[in-house]
Specification:
- It is built from two helices and 16 strands.
- It is α+β, with helices and mostly antiparallel strands and 249 residues long.
- The longest helix is centred in the last third of the chain and has 22 residues.
- 35% of the residues are buried.
Length: 249
């Protein structure tokens, strides 16, 4: 019985191990002053960024994009790799904090994924919305799918806040979270995962204030395999237990 319990625990661990894969992960723990093109990606895709930004890590686990940095466009191409269409993908951006008090209305930072046509059906961003509010936003749907957009409003300064957006193009499901608020929809995202080819971190607006900044703890892309894959692992585990039982009878 003890051996069987150990085997069950091992198979449970195996199932949990395949339940999520980190495809891209930049955790911003690099040495102070590291720019995006020098960041370590600990995900399995090893996507690399090219950049003309002035932002850099602060040595304390965050990447800081200054308000006087001008336009930033940081691109990581998935090259010839086609993401599998089966499975639930999640794009995440964890903010360490922001100060947009002196930023210009419309200044924003976007973390997104583009398709072959340059459209971005997957998007997370932070922007100065008006004189008193910061807007955090997620998009999960083709251009024009306004029902697949969610916004939350915060003050012009803020602390640690997590944003994520998930999708499954095989089922059409999608959703995400902004801070403690979660959203979901059962169908209609209207795009195919295999068409997604490029992740981009970019700024828009004037960004002319040296006293403005956005600090990012981490960004990344992960996938949970389709249920059939997990079911196969569980079935394999059950088969092993059955064989073990027969051998010990």
């Amino acid at each position: 019985m003890k051996k069987i319990a150990i085997l069950v625990a091992a198979m449970t661990a195996l199932t949990m191990g395949v339940s999520a894969e980190q495809l891209d992960l930049w955790n911003m723990s690099d040495a102070s002053g590291t720019t995006f093109d020098g960041l370590v990606n600990s995900g399995s895709l090893s996507t690399s960024f090219t950049t003309d930004s002035t932002g850099a890590t602060d040595g304390s686990g965050s990447f800081v994009i200054p308000g006087d940095g001008g336009e930033t466009k940081t691109t990581g191409a998935y090259s010839s790799l086609l993401l599998a269409s089966a499975g639930t993908y999640t794009l995440s951006m964890n903010l360490a904090g922001w100060d947009l008090t002196d930023a210009t209305i419309g200044d924003e930072i976007e973390y997104l994924i583009k398709d072959d046509n340059g459209q971005a059906p997957i998007k997370l961003y932070i922007s100065k919305y008006d004189a008193t509010q910061t807007r955090l936003k997620l998009v999960c749907g083709n251009v024009g799918a306004t029902d697949k957009i969610r916004n939350e409003y915060y003050g012009l300064t803020g602390g640690a806040t997590a944003l994520s957006v998930y999708w499954n193009s095989a089922t059409g499901e999608g959703g995400g979270n902004i801070g403690t608020n979660s959203y979901s929809w059962a169908s209609g995202i209207g795009f195919t995962t295999v068409d997604l080819k490029k992740s981009v971190l970019e700024t828009a607006g004037t960004w002319g204030s040296a006293t403005s900044s956005v600090s990012i703890d981490s960004i990344g892309l992960s996938v949970i395999p389709e249920p059939a894959t997990l079911g196969l692992v569980v079935a394999m585990g059950g088969g092993i237990l059955f064989i073990r039982r027969r051998l010990t009878m």
